[in-house]
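Q: Given only this backbone (625 positions), what sequence would you predict?
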């Protein structure tokens, strides 16, 4: 993230520098062009100022000369004496050096036919030449404007017979009635203006050279900016493609997280004494919150945890923690040992200093005894009241830490509610938190589903459209154990003597016959009870010290239950790993076959250590068919 931010800042800096250089070049170009044009204008102004008097004098001379010869021209035209007219024009050209040529053109009548068009001019060597006008002079301004004018100066134009810039002064030639019959025009060369234009052109070329260089430099910088922009667009496309790939992978990861949730349908189909509902809402695509539950040996193992951090790292730690929890509850029944083992595992090689606040509970379904251990997590609620919890360290913080154990008995109909801090710390648009008080108002419900759905609706109504900043997980467990009336009850106490096993077989056969078990099932139950009682006789009490074992039998319409009770050393057979009977006999570990037979022949097995007594409960369903 930090590297990406630095790259973005570097790209922005390069673009700013390039844009600043482009603006600087534009300013320099503007200054250079303005300076060149100003110098040219000043030079032109100075030249015009010095030439103003000459121009005014030339204008006056040409107008006076043409005015002097005009009466003679009108007289010769009236006499149709063209030879004398030519003589007058030639004398004018010789007398006035500034006049380079004189045009005489008859006025075109209504029939459109031109009668005479004569042009006498000086060549490059100053010799007089005469040329009949062979172009349409009616299109010239000096003719069209000069017909009705006694003094008209035309705009500069390029001459037809001499490649020079000139302008013409024309006057109308009139007859005795005052009608215009011809136009007489004197041409004046503008070679000084041409020279000035040439010099201006040279100055422009000289001035434009650095301007062109600056423009090329500016164009290069503009190309550089465009290149950077195109690279940025391509990089953006690559980033978007990578983002889509990561999003797709995160969606898959989220699906995997959802698939990791325990299957409640299977759980409820086998146990009608609990009602469980879960809600998990990650703040990002994947979350660091987790909860899990499973039933083994008539015990409900459940946990809830909150990994420090967010996103993928937290999700990976969450997956490891959940897998570790699942692995441990297969053989471990004490919550403090489960959470201690998890801590020892998670604390190893914890280079990223990530930890987990966690609560682990074990609920004994036949008795309602809840044993639990807390690791810095929010205290769960039981029937709307917070459960007292010890303030242990979070999981993964320090190795070799021993977590305390607590226990409480909960009556049937009680509801356990567990949550992560994403619930109480959910914020609205004004950054107000949902809080514990609001949560406690919605803890009363008739079912676990109703509790979770009501709490979810309350939180959504509170936060509105505000984006969630933390994962939110809730777990509700409703304990619904109901004891049914027993159809039979039997009790047998045996001394710790292996010869007493025969009395056990008589009791088992009698009870099984009464509930209607077939002989094959009776044999299986007998084998299971023999293994359990023989284990107590052989190992429960210290060698040489006597003791006894009590077997209680109780049956209702659905199940037959045997309870084996002794006051010997604490021993939980449910924590023993099962024997792999697929291995050859010489490769199997010693022991463990007895618990294997008990698990195989009985439907459930449950162990409790209460009042310094080992209590092992075995159950077998009664098949009424």
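A: Predicted residues:
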């Amino acid at each position: 993230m930090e590297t990406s931010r630095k790259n973005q800042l570097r790209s922005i800096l390069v673009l700013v520098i390039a844009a600043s250089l482009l603006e600087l070049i534009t300013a320099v170009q503007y200054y250079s062009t303005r300076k060149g044009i100003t110098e040219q204008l000043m030079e032109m102004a100075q030249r015009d100022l010095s030439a103003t008097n000459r121009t005014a004098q030339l204008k006056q001379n040409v107008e006076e000369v043409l005015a002097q010869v005009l009466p003679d021209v009108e007289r010769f035209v009236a006499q149709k004496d063209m030879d004398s007219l030519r003589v007058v024009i030639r004398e004018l050209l010789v007398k006035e050096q500034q006049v380079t040529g004189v045009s005489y053109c008859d006025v075109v009548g209504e029939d459109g036919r031109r009668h005479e068009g004569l042009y006498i001019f000086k060549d490059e060597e100053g010799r007089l030449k005469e040329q009949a006008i062979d172009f349409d002079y009616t299109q010239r301004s000096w003719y069209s404007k000069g017909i009705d004018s006694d003094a008209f100066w035309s705009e500069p134009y390029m001459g037809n017979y001499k490649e020079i810039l000139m302008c013409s002064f024309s006057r109308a030639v009139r007859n005795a009635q005052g009608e215009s019959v011809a136009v007489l025009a004197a041409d004046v060369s503008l070679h000084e203006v041409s020279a000035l234009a040439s010099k201006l052109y040279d100055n422009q070329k000289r001035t434009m050279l650095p301007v062109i260089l600056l423009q090329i430099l500016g164009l290069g910088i503009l190309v550089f900016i465009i290149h950077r922009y195109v690279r940025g667009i391509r990089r953006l496309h690559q980033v978007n493609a990578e983002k889509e790939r990561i999003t797709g992978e995160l969606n898959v990861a989220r699906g995997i997280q959802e698939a990791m949730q325990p299957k409640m349908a299977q759980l409820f189909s086998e146990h009608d004494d609990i009602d469980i509902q879960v809600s998990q809402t990650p703040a990002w695509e994947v979350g660091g919150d987790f909860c899990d539950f499973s039933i083994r040996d008539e015990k409900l193992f459940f946990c809830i945890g909150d990994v420090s951090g967010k996103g993928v790292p937290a999700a990976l730690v969450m997956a490891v923690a959940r897998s570790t929890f699942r692995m441990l509850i297969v053989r471990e029944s004490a919550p403090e040992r489960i959470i201690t083992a998890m801590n020892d595992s998670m604390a190893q090689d914890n280079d990223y200093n990530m930890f987990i606040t966690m609560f682990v509970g074990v609920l004994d379904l036949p008795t309602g005894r809840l044993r639990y251990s807390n690791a810095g997590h929010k205290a769960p609620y039981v029937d709307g009241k917070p459960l007292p919890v010890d303030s242990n360290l979070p999981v993964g913080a320090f190795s070799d830490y021993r977590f305390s154990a607590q226990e409480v008995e909960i009556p049937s109909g009680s509801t356990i509610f567990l949550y992560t801090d994403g619930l109480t710390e959910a914020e609205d648009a004004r950054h107000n938190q949902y809080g514990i008080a609001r949560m406690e108002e919605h803890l009363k419900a008739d079912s676990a589903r109703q509790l979770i759905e009501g709490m979810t609706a309350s939180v959504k109504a509170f936060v509105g459209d505000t984006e969630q900043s933390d994962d939110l997980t809730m777990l509700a467990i409703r304990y619904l154990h109901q004891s049914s009336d027993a159809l039979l009850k039997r009790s047998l106490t045996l001394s710790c003597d292996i010869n007493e096993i025969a009395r056990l077989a008589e009791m088992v056969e009698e009870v099984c016959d009464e509930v209607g078990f077939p002989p094959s099932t009776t044999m299986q139950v007998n084998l299971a009870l023999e293994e359990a009682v023989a284990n107590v006789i052989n190992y429960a009490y210290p060698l040489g010290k006597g003791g006894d074992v009590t077997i209680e039998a109780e049956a209702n319409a659905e199940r037959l239950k045997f309870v084996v009770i002794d006051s010997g050393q604490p021993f939980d057979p449910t924590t023993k790993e099962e024997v792999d009977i697929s291995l050859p006999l010489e490769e199997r570990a010693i022991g463990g076959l007895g618990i294997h037979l008990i698990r195989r022949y009985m439907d459930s097995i449950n162990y409790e250590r209460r009042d310094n007594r080992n209590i092992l409960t075995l159950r077998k369903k009664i098949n009424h068919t």
